[in-house]
């Protein structure tokens, strides 16, 4: 039985208990959110780790994409990226490996991953066959293989159909199709005239996912790859299809989340979130970035974090990181760390205004440590404690209670001293009544 099936029957699973403990809810509250599909718990029956929930009222989760490519294939490096992502706070990693030996790479990562692990099965299908052989059997075989291995969620571009691709091609786009899965499927549809096998065989796909409780992450294969393409007909047509598929998957006992763009200007992000929640019946929204401008290669973890914060504040549940390597190369270990930290900042900024439990308490405690010039306390609560300590301790103010920014003019120190003085004077002053009597 999957998490959503158990919840609908009124049962509370061990995974619901774990999510409730970590998020400050009762197990009953988590069960009810899972039953409606507003929260998913992506955890394959064959993958042992402490369950993580994604969805409404929960902490915004973040994902780090890792994985080898056919240009660069070193399993040791991917394992190091996994450990780095987890160490800096990723709730999930996606193995986006392409090239050879994909089953082995995934097995190595799964056996070490203490967080959710996701994949995009079409990468393996396309790595093992030519583009003209994207037949249903190939998809079902790869999905089944990965599900048996323990993959917790899979991105499947079921909404790239003859109709949605036709709508996309009906108008001019700046960057066309930028999703790898979307581009492969659209090319296959346009060359063969056939229907996307993931759409045509959706019930069979759901049956495999249900058997292993793999969460379906409905991919946005037609997402905009330029801010000028955001919220266009192709993107919205695909979203409408994903809304219909959400209902079918839930009816089949499969947990579902929805993937979203991509490149979106600031003034369209909130509308994208509201539309997804409405069209997809409250399904958790999982967005890539979104990047709010197109001109910062080398710094796209920042453009992604700006969009991610707005998206999280508007109700997005899951942010996929962007690294400084975006658009340029496969990320290395340092890029992974930078991307995870930037995305955590975005997620936490959103959580502060969404009222997520514990977010404000963390923030406020850091502020109190700052007021007290309690450096050990600040390091302990920092997202990157090592970097915070290194910056202070390698400066000219190492060991001082102030930092080298303002030195002896440290406003916090001056104000603390002034407050201390004022308090002492208040204690020493005669009571007001004594003044009045004189
Ligand atoms: S020296 Fe300036 S920056 Fe550093 S702790 Fe004091 S007020 Fe803050």
Structure report:
Helices cover 53% and strands 9% of the residues. It contains 20 helices and 10 strands. It has an 8-stranded parallel beta barrel, surrounded by 7 helices. Helix 4 (75-87) runs parallel beside helix 15, helix 6 (121-128) packs across helix 7 (136-149) and helix 7 runs parallel beside helix 11 (202-212). The model has no long low-confidence stretch (mean pLDDT 94).
Structural class by secondary-structure content: alpha/beta
Mean pLDDT, nearest integer?
94
CATH superfamily of the largest domain: Radical SAM ThiC family, central domain
Strand content: 5-15%
Continuous helix count:
20
Heterogens: iron/sulfur cluster
SSE order: HHHEEEHEHEHHEHHHHEHEHEHEHHHHHH
CATH topology of the largest domain: TIM Barrel
End-to-end Cα distance, whole Å, is 83 Å
| Physical arrangement of strands within the biggest beta sheet | 3-4-5-6-7-8-9-10
Number of domains: 2
Helix % is: 40-55%
Shape assignment: globular
């Amino acid at each position: 039985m999957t998490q959503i099936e158990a919840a609908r029957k009124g049962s509370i699973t061990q995974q619901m208990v774990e999510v409730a403990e970590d998020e400050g809810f009762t197990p009953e509250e988590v069960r009810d959110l899972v039953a409606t599909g507003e929260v998913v718990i992506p955890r394959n029956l064959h993958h042992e780790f402490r369950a993580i929930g994604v969805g409404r009222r929960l902490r915004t989760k973040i994902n780090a994409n890792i994985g080898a490519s056919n240009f660069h294939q070193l399993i040791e490096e991917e394992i190091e990226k996994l450990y780095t992502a987890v160490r800096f706070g990723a709730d999930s990693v996606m193995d986006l490996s392409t090239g050879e030996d994909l089953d082995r790479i995934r097995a190595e990562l799964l056996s070490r991953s203490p967080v959710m692990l996701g994949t995009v099965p079409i990468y393996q299908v396309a790595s093992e066959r030519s583009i003209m052989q994207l037949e249903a059997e190939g998809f079902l075989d790869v999905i089944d293989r990965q599900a048996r291995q323990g993959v917790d969620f899979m991105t499947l571009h079921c909404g790239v159909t003859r109709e949605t691709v036709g709508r996309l091609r009906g108008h001019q786009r700046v960057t066309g199709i930028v999703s790898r899965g979307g581009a492969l499927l659209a090319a296959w549809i346009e060359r063969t005239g056939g229907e996307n096998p993931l759409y045509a065989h959706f019930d069979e796909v759901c049956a495999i996912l249900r058997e292993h409780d793999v969460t379906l992450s409905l991919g946005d294969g037609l997402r905009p790859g330029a801010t000028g393409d955001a919220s266009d007909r192709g993107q919205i047509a695909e979203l409408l299809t994903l809304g219909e598929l959400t209902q079918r998957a839930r009816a089949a006992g499969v947990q579902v989340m929805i993937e979203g763009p991509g490149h979106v200007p600031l003034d369209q992000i909130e509308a994208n979130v509201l539309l997804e929640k409405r069209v997809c019946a409250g399904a958790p929204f999982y967005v890539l970035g979104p990047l709010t401008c197109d001109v910062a290669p080398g710094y796209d973890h920042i453009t992604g974090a700006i969009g991610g914060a707005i998206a999280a504040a508007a109700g997005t549940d899951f942010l996929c990181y962007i690294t400084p390597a975006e658009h340029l190369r496969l990320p290395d270990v340092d890029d992974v760390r930078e991307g995870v930290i930037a995305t955590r900042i975005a997620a936490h900024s959103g959580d502060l205004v969404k009222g997520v439990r514990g977010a404000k308490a963390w923030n406020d405690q850091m502020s109190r440590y700052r007021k007290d010039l309690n450096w050990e306390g600040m390091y302990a609560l920092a997202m990157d404690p090592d970097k915070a300590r290194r910056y202070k301790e390698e400066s000219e103010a190492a060991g001082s209670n102030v930092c080298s920014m303002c030195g002896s003019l440290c406003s916090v120190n001056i104000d603390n001293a002034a407050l201390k003085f004022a308090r002492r004077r208040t204690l020493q002053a005669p009571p007001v009544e004594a003044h009045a009597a004189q």
